[in-house]
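Reopening this ticket.

The earlier resolution said the output was attached, but the attachment link was broken on my side. Pasting everything inline this time so it's all in one place.
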Amino acid sequence: MVEFSCNIKRKCLLIYSPVPEVKWWRESRADVESDKLEHDGKVLVLEDVSEEDMGSYYCQAINEAGEGEVHQFTVYIEAAPQFIVEPEVVNQPEGESAAFHCEARGDPAPTITWTKDGEVMDTHDTTIVFDTLTLKHKAVIACNASNTHGYVYKSVYLNVLSLPPEWMTEPGDVAVLEGSSASLECEAYGSPDPEITWARIDGEEKVEVHDEDPRYDIKDNKLIIKSVDENSDGQYVCIAANKFATIEAEAEVAIRSRTDAEVSVVNDRVEAGSHVSLDCKITIDKALKPTITWLHDDEVIDLDDDNYHLGRRESNGDDDDDEDHNNRENVTWVLEILQVHGDDSGVYTCQVRTDLDRVSADLILNVEDVPNPPNLKNVECSGREALLEWASAGDNNAPLQGYVIQYVTQFHPDDWKDAENQLSSSETSYSVNMNPGMNYTFRILAFNRVGMSEPSEESVECASPGLPPDHHPYNVTVTPSAAGSLRVSWDTMGHEEHNGPDFHYKVLWRAAEDEEGSGDGDDGDEITNGEDENDEGDADEDTEDEDEGNENGGDGNGEDETATELEEADDDEADGDGEEDEDVTADGWHYIIIEDWEQDEVELESLPPYTEFEVKVEAHNSYGSSPGIVEVHQEYSGEDVPEEAPTEVEAIDADATDAVLTWEPVDDDSVHGLLLGYKIEFWEADEDDSTAEEVLTTGTSSRVELTDLEPYTEYKARVSAVNSVYTGPASPEISFTTAEGESGPVTNYEVKQLSSNSLLVNWDEPDDTNGVIQGYIVQYREVDEEGNEGPIHEYTPEDLDSENTMIKLADLEEGAKYRVIVTPVNGAGDGEASDIEVEMEEVAHSVPAVPIFTWSLVEREEDEVFDKDGDGDIDDEDVRNKNVIIGDTNQDGKIDSDDVLDTDNDGDIDEEDIDVADINNDGVVNEKDVEAADRDNDGDVDISDIGDEDGDGDFDGDDVIAADEDGDGDIDASDDDEENVLLEDRDKDGDIDADDVVDINRDGVIDEEDFKAADVDNDGDIDEDDLKAADSDGDGDIDAADVADLDGDGQLDGDDLEIMDKDGDGDIDAQDFVLKKVILMDVDGDGDIDEDDVIDTDNDGDIDDDDKAVADIDNDGDVDIDDVKAADRDGDGDIDVADIGDEDNDGDFDADDVIAADEDGDGDIDASDDDEENVLLEDRDGDGDIDRNDVIDIDGDGDVDVHDFNAADIDDDGDVDMDDLKAADKDGDGDIDGADITDFDGDGKLDSEDLDLDDRDNDGDIDAKDFLFRNTLLADTDGDGDVDTDDVLDLDGDGDIDDADIKAADIDDDGDVDEDDVKYGDRDGDNDIDASDVGDVDGDGVIDEDDLDVKDKDGDGDIDSTDFALRNMILGDTDRDGDIDKDDVLDTDGDGDIDQEDFDVADIDNDGDVDSDDVRAADRDHDGDIDKADIGDEDGDGDIDGDDVIKADEDGDGDIDAADDDGENLILWDSDKDGVIDKADVVDITNDGVIDQDDFDAADVDNDGDIDADDIRAADKDGDGDIDAADITDVDGDGDVDGRDLVASDKDGDGDIDRKDFYNLDVFLKDTDNDGDVDEDDVLDLDFDGDVDEDDIKAADIDNDGDVDLDDLIAADVDGDGDVDFKDIGDEDGDGDIDGDDLEAADRDGDGDVDAADDGRGVNVKINWKPDFDKHPGVDFYVESRVEGANSWRKSRVEDEKLHQTLTGLDPRRSYEVRVIARDGEYETPSDIILIPASEEMDRPEDPTVGAVMEETNPLLFTWFIIAIMVAVTMICIVFFSMWVYSHRMARVAELRAALYEGYEPAKAEPIKEKPGDVDIEANKTDEVEDELSANYQRKQLAAMMKRQETIQSVDSFASHDDDFAEYGDESMGRFSSYFNIDHIRLHSTFQRKTNSCLPIFKFIEVIQHAINLFTFCHVSFIISDEIKKNKTRFLAA
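Inline output:
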């Protein structure tokens, strides 16, 4: 007995001789396999024994002697159990039975043992059964098969299920043909098994279907409807039910109609090649989709063949004969055969297939085709005829219609031609004629109505005898070709026309003038051979011979003698070579022979160009010349290229779309042909000439008008002469530019309502600008319900430049309708307008969108001025003389060399300038030079007299030299002849018209303004009368010799031409220009106003009653002074444009304006006519007061800035308030308008210049006299002939003329006001002291004594504000170059120059040079310079100069310090010498004449209430026991050291004068207490009153925001060193010290800071609000700005009319933060903050910078960035955690796998026993909350049990279902460990240890996440808080 898997060896030991063979076999007598035998078969080896090896084995020895004894042994096999049948999981519902089967094999036979939940069952059967299952039967059933060798074991579940039905298969909808069967199937799963029933839905009821119903069969779960009809179709329901639930599923059984098909064709008999359509009409159920297939003779038609096309045609509803047409539709499918042939005849089948049926229909098509080829039976050839016979071969279903006979010849064997094509179908023979000398082959074709048949077989060849040609070539033409050539052409004569061999052409020609009696030779003359009597005996032998040949050779056989002679003659003519050899006949005909009969032309070359010739062409063959008529043609030979190009090409007139070009014509002889005209080529300059357009003139015209040009485009052009053939050389290219044309409309035009009374208008530049857009006109007017339009309101290009394409219209009427018109404007004027009508609706306030804005620097316009008078500086005199050549420039009353100016601008006045000034070339400069060139008689020679004569863009001496063109020593009309031509016949067309107008007004375009100017006689057109009206010299033009530069603008233009003869003296002169804007004045200068002073006010060319009526303003019937008084608003003694203006808005100033001005019709023009006009100041925002928000653009510069605020501050108190209104509101109507203020400066408008006037003459009003004297210091103001106190003006601007004004007027300080005072200051010699004599050097706004007393301290040749600032200075960095050197030395001795004496004074330390050491040696107040505060009037002479510097250095040590002051100006010391300091030692410290409490307070330095030695110690810097000038400086700058200086020296108010006070001596503001911020604790004693009080705090509040903070320091820290000190401000008020007054004075523009703007170097930044058209942008806006780093914002006024504001006076050295706040009612939205960098450190942007881009980090973007980082970190943590969990789950699975096989032992007799501690898990399971009968609970239990079973069977399966493990893990693992002894606690511990090892990582990640969350929360909170603070209103509104 052996076990499985053992090896067995058995030997058969035999001793025989000879050696036997061993044979092995088994009991079945089967031999043992040889591979199991070893050692020659003696050993049997059984390896890996199995049951198959069990049994008896035999062996026997066999040799020659015989067979030996048989030996036998038996192998027994025993084995461990193996399952034959394994138990399986049983899932059965309650009430059913469950059977488990278990069979095993083994040896000995295994014993079967069953267990239930671990308990051994009392049975060993292979099958166990559980009947009538309940939930209690749920258990784990196990089968154990064991024997002595081992066991096998398997456990499974008995699952008792309780499940409601669930669909496994639901019934589906079916569709069938009517009468067909249909089946529905459904299947459901449940426990117990659900019962399936069927029902049909009939209306609202369900009718159950029974198997007994004959209509149905029910098999299992399938319902079969045997024949579906209307009674059995519809909705069916499958119902599945068990005791737990019932479910239903519906399906539809639909009937489909059967498909019908019908085919048709329009005609079943068609011709070949026809287009045939075969219709297949199908009637089909709408729910079915057909598939159409066509067959031809049962073969499927290939629709890919291009000859077939299948399409669908919907049938009309009328064709539907189906009763149930709602379910059926008719569709026709059309098979198109594009071209049928005979083989297309046959049967066509239309086959229709659907998903349910299939039908077909047939039709027959017959195709008619061409006949069969005829049978050619016979051909008989005889001479020149051939007889043909034939027979028909069939007509192919179409009757024959006839026959065609065709032939070919030997010359064209493939070119068949018809001999006869209309033979009757009945004919069968025909005779054909043949041409001479030809061989013919024939064939026959038949035709019917379908077409022509194929040809018959070809006939035999027939030949015909020859003759001369019947005719000469037809259609002979002679045309000129190349130069000196003629091209002769003709129609070739085919072989059929040759009539014999050796056919050729003969071309003859001769010059027309060479004819000898041959007639005139006109084209087309016909000459018959032999009839030309003048042909000198018929020298042309051809003609004669040919005639003879025709007579003698009539038979045409070509064998006669004549033919031979002709051939010889032709050979002679051909000159032997036979082709195109030229020869000459006796009568002068040149000829050539053309042998090639196919040649149809010949070129006759080398002829004289453009010469007339006679030409003829003849036909010849071997039989002679044609007897026909030959034509003679006359033509000129070819033309040659013209030699010359046109010259002097110019564009004399270029309008927008046309231009006139002229040129000098070429010489006729150079044309070399007939001059057709001139070719003008022109093209746009930016393209090449390949795009040129051409215009051809005719004849000799030398002028052309080019039309349809593009406006404002540069063109190039050239001109060439053209004859009939050639174009001559082109002229040099010229360039010209068309004028600007009318612009197209704007694009993207839209209007948006912003509020109930405002609109936003937006547009883009026109697509077709046709020039340069200069700006836009925006007009709007109200439209009433009837469509009537109200007055127009307009914005012009001055308001809207080309870059401004958005505008706001404000102050509109709510509820009104407006029409808004936008018109682009270019140089041609107004373009095409676009308009939109908008009805104003009520709009609720809402939160505006975040505003976007742009900014740009406002460039200053500076006109370049040179030092014309050579005095070393550029001042007012240079500006005045900028455009002057010679005049009384030094105002000494005469003209001499002292008046010569620097005319060549080379920096000096030299001989070249004197030569220029000597205009008459007499060697001296005097009045005669002025007379020689003073055309306008104004006493000087300037730009009005000469102009830019050399065209170099400036006005200088070169223009004077160029102006004297005739060299006669003067500049007069003869020099101007033909210059500056304004009107002449430019286009040379012989008349004066609009085409002759030039750009008269010099605006770059010829437009209506130029036409108006050219209409000199104002008759509405431009003609000869206009020329005659102004052509003074009669030279046929209007130029500089006829018209003077009357307006003095330096050029002759339309303004000069438009001036009328206003005074009626018969000429137009300077007097008329003066009167251009006058209505009435004392014109004749007789001292009164009368009719003699009336001028031509209506510009009609005369002074008549109409003009007198206009002048009679008060309507009293006469013209007198009362009329002037009635309208002279400015009080200047006349009525002019300053009094009235362009009242009717027609663009000019005339009588109509006078009438319009008297609005109230009371006969005068006064304030009542102007009420509410030109309002300059009023309560615009309606808030009840007057403030900065009410200021408008008073100065008209396009924005509201500091200049407008200053103008509105009428009372000059520094603010705009109600007092300013009261100061100028004369009529008391609550505003300042045209009724209150006059146009004093006469510029035609009311503006800041008129408003900013004082009552200088103290007469109680502000009038023209005040304007006249606004810059006057002293003059004869009362006009009485002398200067006295009556002439004194209000010089100090305090509103009255008092002693202070009289004292200021006493300039020479002699105690009275007289002529001497005028002489003292009258520098220009005009008998007054005004702005021409002295400027406002102290910057106080008036010219007064202070300005006059200033000396030229800096030695630059003039007295200006710099000299005023330096008046009290000895030495400092005066040139601001950063160091102290000789360049900073001033005129300290007042001798008028800076010389060695001044250098010696400046060298304070006496070291031989001037440097910073000199400043340090005397700068006592440490402000960086030496001035009055450091030295004072040391020598007591009343001024501070160099003598005081010398005097101050008392100890002579080279510096000025305390040692020089020791013992001087004693303030406190032991004056009574009692050894103590007390009150007895106090002196009169305050210098008020008494020793009082003020002195005691001043002496109490330490502020402790008494006077003692502590007070000395508190201020005794030099420790000498006293307080004197060595200890205290002259702080208040009054020239001495006294108690006020003692008090003032304690800057920080701490009770002593120490180093800290020294450091802060010249400081206004800084962090004095070093606490890290700037606040009130840092305020110093700025007014030097001894304490730090409210006055000092107010002074320190530099930005005027009510507190002292860092913003104040930033506002004035010019040098950026962190404090405000003398380097930032200086002694602004010139009082010798630096204190709070200087701080206030330094802020000259009153904007709350001290910056470059206060020095006049401020920059302006224009802020442009760009409202978002797609969102609600808001209604108005204002701007907030602040210096970078400051905290508080400066707010502008609210801009409610425009879309821009200008920030003025920004410091170019600082950067500013700016934002725009959009407003709508109470809602406000701020923009992003942008940074405007310091303009001195940046390149100014060419384009505005968009304000939507922030310079600083956007906090919201930064927040999102942080959040993104946080999310990324979290995701990384999740990924790593997931990876960690997965790895540990895999580890856990591995542990489970090992644990499953950990303690298994071979089974004993009863291997399964109940162990102590085993627990019935089901029994101990806690009650579930969920109902155990619920389907959900049952499903969960089943899933859990199945997952557990799978887990036991395969751990890998467990690993793949970890989701279920996660759900049921605790329960399943508990049971699993109970069954198989797995230590669950140990596994859990292992998992826990691995988890704990990663806890630090998780903790770290958690901390990081919390930190990020906290940071984000704080950051977002900060942003929200900041935004709320920035705009609280917006957040509250939101």
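Reporter confirms the inline version is readable. The first strand starts at residue 2 and ends at 3. The chain has a mean pLDDT of 77.
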